[in-house]
Each structure stands twice: as C-alpha cells, then as structure tokens.
Inverse folding.
C-alpha cells in the first residue's frame, strides 16, 4: 500500500500539472477556463498518455521518460506556482469536512484494493509483457508477429509503463487503474450531497450517471489491481458522460467544454477501439461551431484530436502493420513486418466469438438469432440477464422519445434541451448496440449497459416530475448494501503481505529457446507467462528477426 500511495502522489502531481498547463492553453486559445480539479486530472492523464506513446516511438519508457516528464512539470509549477497552490488550497479549504473525510476514506480504500486482489488472466497472458516491451524498447516493428495480442496496443499500456517506475520500486507497479477508479469515485461523491437535493429538489441525469458509475465501481474493486484496459476505458466513459450531462444541466452554452470532452472521447478510442461510437456526441459542438462559422476553433479541435490519436495509430502501425488492428480490411500500409492478413482475420473472429461465448472462431458467421440466445443463457449471470432485458426495454423507450421529439420538431414545439438529452441517450444506445452485436463480453461494455439503464430511468423520472431527494436515498441504500460485501473482502484480504509493496504479477514455470542467440521464454503448461522473464510468449513458435537485435523487430514467418 505504501508503494501504491507514493506512486499515486507522483501520478497526481504530474497529471495535475499537465492538466493545469492544458487549462492555460485552453484559456488562451478558446477563452474558456477549466476549473474542476478532477477534470484537470483527467485531461492530464490524456496528455501524459500521449507523451508516453510519443516517447515510446524513440526509446523505452522508463527512467529517462520520467525525468523528462518531471522536468516539464517543474517548469509548469515554477511558471504558475502561486495559481496552482491557490487552486489546490482553496479547493481543500472550501470543501466540507464530510467531503474531506470521504475523500481520505476513498484514497485508503482504493489504495488497499490496488495493492492486492485478482490479477486478471489476460494480465499474465499479455498485459504484463506488453507493458514490459514498452518499458524496455518503446515500440518494436512487427511485435504482433510473435504474439498477436501485443498488436492490440491500448494506449493504457504506455501510460502504465510510464508510471510503473520499476527503476525505483524494484518491481513494475500497476496502479493506474486504481488511480482512475479513485478519481471517478470522488466524482460520484456529489450524489451524496443531500443539500443539493433539499435546496432545489432537482432531478439531474448526471446524478443518475453517477449512480451507474458508483455501482460499476463496486464491481471492480477486487480486480482493479490488474493493468487491464477494460476498467480504465469504462471509467473514462462514465466520467465523460457525467461531465457532459453536468455541463448541460448547469446551462453551459459555450461549445468549448463539449468540444474538449469529444477530444477525451478520441482518447477513449486509443484505450479501446470499441469506445469510438461515443464520438456521436461530436454532433453537438460540430453543429454549433459550423452554425457560428467558427472554422478556426474547428481546426483547433481537429488538431487536438489528431495529436491524441496519431501516436496511437503510429504505434499500431509499427507493431502490426495496420492502422487499426485487427481489421485487415483497412490494409493501406506496405511494410515488411505486417501481420499476415489471415492471422489478423482469425484474431478478429476469435475476439467476437469469445465475447459471444462460442469459443470457436469458425462460428463467427452465425447470425444474431443463432448466437444471441446461447450467449444470453450461458454467459451472463442472473443480474446480467436482468440488465440486458432492461436495456432492450430502454432501446424501445428511447425510440418512442425520439419519435415524440420528431413530431414536436415538425410542429415547432421541440426544445433544444430535449434534443441534447436525446443525443446523449442516442450515443449511449448506439455504443450499447455496437457492443451487443460485436463482442458482448460483459466487462467490455459494462459502462454502456449501465448508462443506458440509469439514463433512461432518469429521463422517465424527469417526465413524471419525481423528487430529486429519491436519488440521494438510492445512493445511500446502494452504498450500505455494497459496504457489507466490501468489508468482507477487506477482511478476507487482510492477511496478504501487501501493506508496503504491491502484489506482483504471477510467476510460472517457463522454458526457453534461442533465436539467433537471444533467449525467448514460454510456459511449460498453459499459456501465461507473467512479467519477470522477458521476452516471453504463450508458446514456442518459429521467430524470425528483421535484423540482428530484438529492437530491429520481427517478420511474419511468410517472409
């Protein structure tokens, strides 16, 4: 826990300072002030992730990358020292005592959960090795040829490599998921502020989204120790919708915060490609900017989006030979390290069939009516089945609301407020349907599943003019109900020796073979390799180097 806490202090300092510098950039370019500290931290995470990916294009992401980052942060702090200290001090000073206590409790709770727990199967299969490749070499051409899962290239792995600080901790720390979960949990604290509901009795969709996020966080505290991109992207998606709805409900008319959140949406795509559907939210700021002919601002947002996605695309191209992997249909690069198209297609089929509970790539061609009943019956827990049934009902309700809005628009009675709320629901529903019809493994899309339910429920509750205090009651009841299982988990893990260091990756019985004098490791049984032995792959295969060293990359065996 001690290592996790100190690591988080470093993550907080660097992301906040980068986020603050970004806020000054936004103020200068768009004449808009970003004031929310949690929002600054999320934008800081975006900046640091882009930095880590850019650095990986030229060098391993280790001590040197951190020294450069620290120097940049020192410059930022010196430049705006008084403003930065004032912002933090005033935020803490103005916060109610109960908020301060809750924040400290959340820090300790997530620190405990991040120090130990269930290391996800995929983490020892390829997450750990992916992070170590970035630590050691940055990016290696054709890396996907020795293990196709290395080609998945989530930007989260670059971020994890930057903050793993192995050179200081003596082990590769994996604390970033816990830090992001902590930020999201602090964001949910607003729903416990009873004064907001008593004073105005307002029903806010953002509070319904916070309820969904709160429930999601109670599902992942056992697993947050793993450096899996699924948890990170789901937390980012939850935060993005909460912030978006908060701006709408605060009556924010400036397009800047919405445009910046769309840039964060681009960032979510680099975490996991399937998050791209939420970019439907772009319709709102794009329409406003085009209507006002603010072409300069449009160009600025486009540049920001390109800056966020370009290093991720470059890394994907270097690792796999494709701009987007595993989508061999987008084969536009002519490079010698390209993963064989048949292998890429097979990998894409395996992702879909695994998510559908079929576990056989040959069944990828089954129609929805053939695989959906089996998936629903065999892969979902009881509560998951209820969620999916509820989502089906929500889709129908949203369609009804959309038809009603179209009729009102024709009669010129439609309000912009209703259109904006429907856009949010439409983006969530489209994201859900994309997940449902592609690779519907529950952990791949929990945010879409829950957001669709809670936001539709919130819209209905607004229609019946419900009382806002009921949302506060739901939050309290949910928290009390989940506290029982959480306390049981804490007690069950109390004997684990992770109060100083963090639980490390798993260790496995590995064998090795030489490739031009370079040892490669593989498991004697199973397919997990962990982190310690490097480079390691799930099984012994023929490997062909592009040069004389690992950093030169790998050919597909067809070469």
């Amino acid at each position: 826990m001690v290592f996790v806490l100190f690591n988080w202090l470093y993550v907080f300092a660097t992301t906040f300072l980068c986020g603050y510098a970004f806020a000054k950039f936004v103020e200068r370019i768009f004449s808009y002030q970003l004031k929310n500290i949690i929002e600054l931290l999320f934008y800081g995470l975006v900046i640091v992730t882009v930095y880590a990916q850019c650095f990986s294009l030229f060098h391993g992401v280790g001590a040197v990358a951190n020294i450069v980052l620290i120097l940049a942060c020192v410059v930022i702090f010196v430049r705006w020292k008084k403003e930065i200290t004032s912002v933090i001090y005033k935020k803490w000073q103005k916060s109610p005592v109960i908020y301060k206590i809750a924040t400290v409790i959340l820090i300790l709770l997530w620190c405990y959960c991040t120090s130990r727990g269930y290391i996800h199967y995929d983490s020892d299969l390829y997450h750990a090795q992916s992070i170590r490749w970035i630590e050691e070499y940055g990016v290696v051409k054709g890396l996907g040829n020795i293990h196709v899962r290395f080609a998945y290239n989530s930007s989260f792995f670059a971020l994890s490599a930057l903050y793993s600080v192995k050179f200081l901790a003596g082990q590769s720390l994996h604390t970033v998921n816990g830090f992001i979960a902590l930020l999201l949990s602090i964001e949910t604290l607003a729903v416990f502020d009873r004064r907001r509901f008593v004073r105005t009795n307002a029903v806010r969709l953002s509070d319904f989204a916070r309820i969904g996020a709160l429930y999601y966080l109670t599902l992942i505290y056992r697993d947050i120790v793993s450096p899996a991109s699924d948890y990170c992207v789901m937390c980012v998606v939850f935060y993005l919708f909460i912030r978006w709805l908060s701006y709408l409900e605060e009556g924010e008319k400036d397009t800047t915060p919405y445009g910046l959140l769309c840039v964060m949406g681009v960032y979510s795509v680099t975490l996991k490609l399937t998050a791209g559907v939420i970019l439907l939210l772009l319709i709102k700021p794009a329409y406003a900017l085009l209507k006002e002919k603010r072409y300069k601002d449009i160009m600025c947002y486009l540049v920001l989006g390109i800056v966020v996605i370009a290093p991720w695309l470059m890394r994907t191209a270097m690792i796999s030979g494709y701009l987007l992997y595993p989508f061999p249909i987008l084969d536009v690069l002519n490079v010698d390290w390209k993963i064989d198209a048949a292998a890429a297609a097979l990998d894409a089929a395996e992702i879909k069939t695994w998510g559908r509970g079929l576990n056989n790539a040959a069944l990828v061609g089954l129609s929805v009516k053939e695989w959906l009943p089996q998936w629903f019956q065999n892969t979902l827990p009881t509560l998951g089945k209820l969620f999916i049934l509820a989502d089906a009902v929500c889709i129908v309700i949203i369609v009804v609301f959309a038809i009603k809005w179209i009729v009102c628009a024709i009669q010129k009675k439609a309000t912009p407020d209703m259109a904006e709320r429907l856009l949010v629901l439409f983006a969530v529903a489209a994201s859900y349907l994309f997940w449902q019809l592609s690779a519907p493994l529950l952990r791949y899309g929990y945010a879409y599943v829950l957001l669709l339910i809670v936001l539709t429920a919130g819209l209905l509750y607004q229609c019946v003019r419900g009382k806002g205090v009921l949302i506060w009651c739901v939050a309290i009841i949910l928290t009390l109900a989940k506290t029982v299982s959480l306390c049981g988990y804490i007690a069950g893990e109390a004997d684990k020796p992770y109060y100083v260091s963090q639980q490390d990756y798993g260790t496995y019985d590995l064998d090795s073979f030489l490739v031009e004098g370079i040892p490669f490791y593989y498991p004697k049984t199973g397919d997990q390799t962990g982190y310690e032995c490097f480079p390691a792959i799930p099984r012994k295969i023929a490997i062909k180097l592009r040069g004389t060293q690992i950093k030169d990359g790998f050919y597909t065996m067809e070469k």
User: Anything to note?
Assistant: Strands lie at 510-515, 518-523, 544-545, 554-555. Residues 77 and 377 are 55 Å apart (CA to CA). The first strand starts at residue 510 and ends at 515.
